[in-house]
Each structure stands twice: as C-alpha cells, then as structure tokens.
Design a protein that fits this description.
The complex is a heterodimer of chains A (196) and B (648). Chain A has one domain: de novo design (two linked rop proteins), CATH 1.20.1440. In chain A, helix 1 runs antiparallel to helix 2 and helix 1 runs antiparallel to helix 5. Chain A is rod-shaped. Chain A has 196 residues and is mostly helical. The longest helix of chain A has 56 residues. Chain B has 648 residues and is mainly α. Chain B has three domains: 354 residues, no CATH class; 131 residues, no CATH class; 108 residues, no CATH class. Chain B contains 23 helices and four strands. In chain B, strands 1-2-4-3 form a four-stranded mixed beta sheet. In chain B, helix 17 runs antiparallel to helix 18, helix 19 crosses helix 20 and helix 19 crosses helix 21. The N terminus and C terminus of chain B are likely disordered. Chains A and B meet through helix 1 and helix 5 of A and helix 2, helix 14, helix 15 and helix 17 of B.
Chain lengths: 196, 648
C-alpha cells in the first residue's frame, strides 16, 4: 500500500516535471517566433518602400537602368526568402537564405546610394529625401528587432539543450533554432543613407 | 432584477466582492470533492462486487481510505497543476486557446482598429494597455480577458469578431472585457479554470483506461478485466459528475458577473447601442458565439458570449441567455433598441463616439498649468466613465502621427520615452551631457528623429504616451530591456535628482516591466492593519501635503486632516520639507504596495485629500497621484482638463 503510494507519487512527480519542461520549451519557442514576426513587419515595410524609391528616382536615373534593375531583383529575391522564413522562423535553411538575400539587397542598395550621390538634383528631391529617411529608420528597426530575435533564439536553444530539458526536447521535436545573422563584416554597418 | 442604470463601480469594492466569490468557490469545490469521493467509493464497491468478491454490507473502511487518498491526489493535483500552469498569466490562456499575438505595429487595418479600441479603453481606465490576441481559427463572435492582475492582462477576440462588428460594437465588447479586468474577475476566472480542470481529470483517466481496454479486448476476458472495465466506466461516470459540479460552480460564479460587465460596458462607452448591437449580431450570426477549439470548454466562463453548444439545461450555462442580456440593456436604455441605434448599421473608424463630448476642447491648446476640478477628480478614481474614453480617443487622434507610430514599435517606443524625458529636462534646463554617449547608436538615431515631433507635446500628453509605449516595450528582449533600464536610470539620475515627471515615468514603466520580465517578485499582501505601515503612511502623506498645498504653511493643516481621515495616530507632525524628496517615496511605496486592498483604498483617499486640499488639482499633482496609485496597483483614469462650464 505504502509502496504503491510512493510509486504513484514518483510517477506523478516525473510526469509533472516533464509537462513543466514541455511548457517552458513551448513558451520559449513562441517567444522567438513572436520576435521573428517583429522583424517580419519591418522587413515588409522596407520591401514596400523600395519600389516607391525606384519609382521616385526613375526620371533622374535613366542611364542607370542596370543599378535600378539590380535593386528590384534583389528586393524580389528578399521578398521570397522572407516569406519562406516567416512560414518557418528559426529553420536553419530558411534563415540562411534570408541572410543571403538580405546581404545581397543591402549591397545593391549601397551601390544605388553611391549612384544617387552623384546626382545633385536627386539629392535635393523632397520625396526622395523622405523615402530615404523612412528607409533608414526602418533599417534601424530591423536591426533592433533582429537583436531581440537573436536573444530569444539564444534563450530557446539554451533551454532546449539543458539537462533534463534535452530529454523532452528530443522526442517532442523541439528543433534547434537558427540565428538571423548578418553575413559579412562590411554589411554590418547597415546601409549608410545619411548623406547630407 | 433590472440592470442598474449605472453600474456604480468602486474598484476596491468589486475587488473585495471578487474575493468573497473566491470563498464561495472554495466551499463549492470542497463539496464537489466530497461528493466525488463518495462516488468513487461506491464505484469501487460495485466493481468489486461484480468481480465476484464476497462483500458484506456497504461499509469498507479500507476502500474508503483509498478512495479518499486517490481522489484527493488526483483532483488536487489536477487543480494545482493547472493553477501553476496558468500562473504565467493571461498570455498562457490565450496561447492555450490558439491565440496569436497582435503586434502593436501590425499593418492589418482591422487589427490596428482593435488595438486602437483597446488602447483607448486602457488609457481611459488607467490600467496598463493589455496584450491583444486574435483567435484566427474562430469564426464565431466572441472575446475574453484573462490574467491574474491588470498588469498581465490580455484581451483576445475571435476573427469573427473583427470581421462582423462595427467599431462601436467592438468598443462595447472590449469595454465589457475591461470591466472583467477592473472587477478582479480575471483572477477568479483562472482559479475557476484550475478547479474545473481538477474535477475533469477523473473523467479523463476513466476514459483513457476504457479506451485502452477497448482496444485490448481481443486478448480474451477474465473476470478481473471485466471488473477493471466496469471500474473505469464507473470512474468515468463519477468523473463526469465532477464535470457536472465544475459547470455548476462555473455558472454559479460567473453568470451575475456578465450582467455587471454588460452594464459597465454601457457606463464606459455611453453607447448602449454598441454592446446591444454586438449581442444581436451574435444572435443572428451563423456561427453565433461558438468557439471551436477543444480546450474552450474549460475556459468557457471567460468568454464574452457562450462559447459552447447548447447545453440541455440553462442551469449549466456560464452565461445568461443572449435574449435576456439584450433585453436588460434595452430596458435600461430604450435608445439601444434596433432601428434607433446609431451603431446598428455599423461603420468604419470614423463614427466612433456617438456624443462628441470634447469636440471643442482644443486639447492641444491647454497649457500644463490647467487647473482641474477637484470634485470631478475625486469621483474619477477607479471609476471609468464615458468621458474618459472619449477623452482618450480625442487625445490619441490629436497626437502627431510620428509619435503615435513610434510608440508602436519596440525601438521607437523606448526612444520616445527617452525623448519625452529629454524634452522635459530641456524645459527645466537640466543638463544631460554625455548621457547619449553610452546609448545604442540605433536608439540615438531614433531619438534624433523623434525629437522635433515630441518637443511640441503638452504636459498632459506625456504620461498617456508612456502608457501607449508600454505594449511595444514588452517586445524587447530581456537583454534589450536591461539596456533600456540602465539608460532610463542614467537619464533620470543625470542631474542627481529625481523630479516629479521622472518619478512618474519610472513608476509606470519599471514597475510593470520588471514584473513582466521576471526581474521583480510578484507582490504579496502582508499588511492588513494601519499600524504596520504607520511610518510609511506618515511619509507619504507628508510628501503629498507638501506637494498639494500652494502655500507653505497650509501643508501642516492638510497633513493633519489627511492623517485624521485615516484615524492614524495624531502624534506625528509633518516631515520637514527638505526630507520630502521623491527618493523617499520609492521606499515608502514599495512597502505600501503590500497592504490589503481595503487599506490601500483608505490610504489613496487620504492622498486625494492632500491633493485637493487647496481646491485645485494641477497636472503635476495629478501625475504624482497617478504615480502613487500605479505603485499601489490601482487604476486611475486620466485627468481630464476641465472643459465643462466653470462651477458656480
């Protein structure tokens, strides 16, 4: 009788601990997914801004068609990559693709801005200035949201590798989540758009 | 029982009543456990008899003790587990039911409208803007509020709610949910969930055994297996008796609260058409208020409308019938009847408040020196009224768009808070040299961008803006919040002295955010008698009396009056002015926050006496009072600059 009660108590305790760990992991996972959707909102905003920007400068940059096309192409690729990542944030492959596409887009935007520098008319254009301002503020927010996401991913990964959590994480398919990193050191200083 | 024309809601009174309901809950729960034990005992006896054991009579102590032990373990275990699980607060419940968080910076128009409605209601009632969730899978019209305290509250609505309701109706529903927040129904509801879960566990165990036996049946049947089968069946039956009691308890505790919340919704919005329209739409909607999520049963009492399919007896409903709810609203407010309501036709964001109460307020023009009406101020504490909601809406619309947008984004929100403090410091000529050096450059850039729009804000807008920034700040990561906190403290300490506005900002933000990020322990009630906190009360009232009196020598009188109102010992005299710094207030309030609600009410009333003593309430005094109330977890509606005809 007492033996049975002790056994029962043990079983209850083990199940209890297991369920608590499971819940913790779910909470952590939700948190980083939430954090990703913060990035997603800002990325979308940026992707919406870019066509407007291209539209605004088209007139001035007739002879720079190549640059403009490259911007549009890089933007479209980034849109696709981000759609995949949003569907499955933390997935290593999707995050890698997004990192690549974002690095490409940043690089192309950097070149585009260098081109703009050489057109004084354009530099004084009000719409252009406003769009640039918005773009830089969005870049800022993306950087910040990415930091929050990476913090959350880190927390989740630590929680899932800890003992005894790892015993639950395996069977219940809590996969390791990938960070959203910036690829090369030179892209780290965001796009510099504060030309005055 | 008619709907009272106005649900007079004393915040403290309703908190106390929620506590009484908790006592009732405990009694009913104990009763249910006892009856379940008896049921299990009988089940075992019957099963044993069926197994062919020789049983003599009905009394078998050994079986009885076992039944007591097992039932107690299972039910209490189930209850405690659920309550611990729910201890994570409202967001846990929302996630359980499949809710998805709506981010403050969402681009979806419908979601943004919902956020706006919630934000206005929160500013109007002085509670922190709750996190908002959507149940995207649910097509019925329904909503709920959950959480243990107003600080961790969430409001969730179904997708159907967003699609079907006009802004007025949505406002009615949200107001109804806010009433649950302000009335302390939420904590009660979560405890109720725990209790019902415990009672449900038995039924689940019975069903699981039954299922496994059903599958293994082909392996031949012994008499023992048959007995186990019978036992499992009986256990399930007993379990459902538990569920029966669970529902009985739920409906006993929650139905009256729904009428109260409906009445409060009218009080908040002064628009009976809104909530009545929402209820009527549920009645006519194909999905009604049904919630499809399988976990909805245990949470059915949280919802705005009845989330479950028809129950065979009205007795078990967690909600009063729709028709009855509509009828009560229409009886009290004939204008809410269909055809006469401005809300029934629905409409977009434009036609929100049916009475433009503050159309001519010219709120932006009001200077910080506005003198406020003490009587109105006294009446507004813990008592949200329609003008507060209208005022909040008016104010948010009057703010510069850049600022409003910034408040919705984590980076923008923290930069905005810094910006407000910087502007205020500029105004008072304080130095903040070197402060910006150690900031994250992204924050620095954002501050520079916001600075021009923030510079023109009136003083009465500042604290509401801090309120608006708080939901976005919750999206910071823990590390980012750490940085923000350090930056905030450094900015406040830049001149080695804490002024009133800085104190209020810090009270509003760090109190709530520390709790949210798990940096501060939740408060417990430790002091129930005034004597235990006499020193603190003495300090608090001294500071307020100094602040609230225009003329230096009145402060002593004011202080004495406030102490008398509290029945505190009269031997104290007011603290010297130089000792009445705001740094003292922090320590004092931390201790007072652990007093009982009853005591807090008395203390806050005494504080009010101090502030209105000179028959004037300045914006600064109102801010101070708000900060004190925030520290004591008591919601205070915003101060409405006086726009009514001057008192005779």
């Amino acid at each position: 009788m007492i033996g049975a009660l002790v056994l029962l108590g043990l079983i209850v305790a083990v199940v209890w601990i297991g369920v608590s760990i499971y819940n913790t992991l779910v909470t952590c996972r939700n948190r980083y997914k939430n954090a990703y959707s913060q990035i997603d909102v800002q990325l979308k905003r940026r992707y919406d801004l870019i066509p407007n920007l291209v539209e605004a400068v088209k007139e001035y940059l007739k002879f720079e068609r190549e640059t403009l096309e490259a911007v549009v192409k890089a933007r479209n690729q980034a849109v696709q990559a981000s759609a995949k990542a949003a569907g499955n944030p933390g997935n290593a492959e999707a995050m890698k693709a997004l990192t690549g596409a974002e690095a490409e887009l940043s690089g192309v935007l950097g070149r585009f801005l260098a081109v703009v520098e050489s057109y004084p008319d354009l530099k004084a254009n009000k719409t252009m200035l406003q769009l640039m301002e918005e773009l830089s503020s969005t870049e800022n927010k993306i950087g910040f949201a990415r930091q929050a996401y990476n913090d959350a991913v880190m927390e989740y990964n630590v929680a899932r590798e800890k003992f005894p959590n790892v015993l639950i994480a395996g069977p219940f398919d809590f996969k390791e989540a990938a960070l959203f990193e910036i690829e090369a050191a030179e892209e780290k200083k965001a796009v510099k758009v504060s030309f005055r | 029982m008619a709907l009272p024309g106005r649900a007079t809601m004393d915040f403290f009174e309703s908190q106390a009543s929620a506590r009484r309901k908790t006592a009732l809950l405990v009694v009913l729960f104990s009763l249910a456990v006892l009856l379940t034990i008896a049921g299990v005992y009988l089940a075992v006896v019957v099963a044993c008899a069926a197994a062919g054991k020789v049983m003599q009579g009905w009394w078998h102590p050994w079986i009885f003790y076992n039944a007591v032990a097992w039932v107690a373990i299972v039910i209490l275990g189930g209850t405690v587990y659920k309550i611990i699980d729910l201890w994570k607060g409202g967001s846990r419940v929302a996630e359980l039911l499949g809710g998805v968080r709506v981010h403050p910076n969402t681009t979806d128009a419908g979601e943004q409208r919902l956020l706006n409605v919630v934000q206005e209601m929160a500013i109007a009632s002085g509670v922190p803007v709750p996190a908002v969730y959507i149940l995207p899978q649910e097509k019925g019209i329904n909503a709920f509020a959950a959480g243990f305290t107003p600080q961790d509250a969430v409001v969730a609505v179904t997708r159907g709610c967003l699609q079907a309701l006009s802004r007025d109706e949505l406002q009615g529903v949200v107001a109804h949910e806010f009433s649950h927040i302000l009335n302390g129904d939420m904590a009660l509801n979560l405890r109720l969930m725990g209790v019902v879960n415990g009672l449900l566990v038995l039924a689940l165990i019975g069903r699981t055994i039954l299922d496994s036996k059903g599958r293994g049946r082909s392996r031949g049947r012994s008499k023992g297996a048959g007995a186990i089968f019978l036992f499992a069946f009986l256990l399930m039956v007993v379990g459902y008796i538990g569920v029966f009691f669970g529902n009985l308890i739920k409906s006993a505790v929650s139905r009256q609260r729904e009428f109260l919340a409906d009445a409060a919704a009218v009080q908040f919005t002064r628009n009976p058409g809104g909530i009545a329209g929402a209820l009527r739409k549920i009645a006519g909607w194909t999905g009604g208020s049904l919630v499809a999520n399988p976990r909805a049963e245990e949470a059915s009492h949280l919802f705005f409308g009845d989330g479950m399919k028809d129950r065979f007896l009205a007795f078990f409903r967690s909600h009063p019938p729709l028709r009855e709810r509509i009828r009560r609203i229409e009886m009290a407010y004939p204008e809410a009847a269909p055809g006469r309501s401005s809300a029934a036709g629905g409409g977009g964001d434009g036609n929100a408040v049916s009475e433009p109460l503050f159309a001519d307020a010219g709120i932006q023009a009001l200077a910080a020196s506005v003198r406020l009406d003490p009587e109105r101020f006294l009446a507004s504490v813990g008592n949200t009224q329609a003008p507060h909601v209208a005022y909040a809406r008016e104010m948010v619309t009057a703010l510069p768009p850049a600022v409003v947008e910034a408040a919705r984004d984590p980076l923008g929100a923290q930069s905005l808070v810094f910006c407000l403090l910087l502007c205020e410091k500029e105004r008072t000529g304080e130095k903040t040299k070197d402060w910006e050096d150690r900031l994250d450059p992204a924050v620095g850039r954002e501050i520079a961008r916001l600075r021009p729009s923030a510079a023109g804000l009136g003083r009465e807008h500042l604290l509401p803006l801090v309120d608006m920034a708080w939901p976005a700040l919750r999206n910071l990561s823990k590390a980012q919040y750490g940085d923000f906190r350090v930056g905030l403290q450094r900015l406040i300490d830049a001149d080695r002295k804490v002024d009133l506005f800085e104190f209020a900002v810090r009270s509003l933000l760090t109190n709530r955010l520390d709790a949210f990020f798990g940096l501060a322990k939740p408060r417990r009630i430790r002091y129930r008698v005034l004597d235990q906190v006499q020193v603190e009360v003495f300090e608090l009232l001294s500071i307020l009396a100094r602040q609230g009196s225009r003329i230096e020598r009145d402060a002593g009188d004011t202080f004495q009056k406030a102490m008398e109102a509290l029945d505190a010992a009269k031997s104290h005299t007011i603290l010297a002015r130089e000792k009445c710094g705001l740094s003292l207030l922090d320590k004092t309030l931390a201790r007072l926050a652990e007093t009982s609600f009853d005591l807090r009410k008395r203390i806050l009333n005494a504080c009010l006496l101090c502030i209105v003593a000179d028959r004037q309430v300045t914006i600064e005094e109102a801010e101070l009072f708000r900060a004190v109330a925030e520290n004591l977890d008591c919601p205070v509606p915003p101060v409405i600059p006086q726009t009514l005809p001057a008192a005779a």
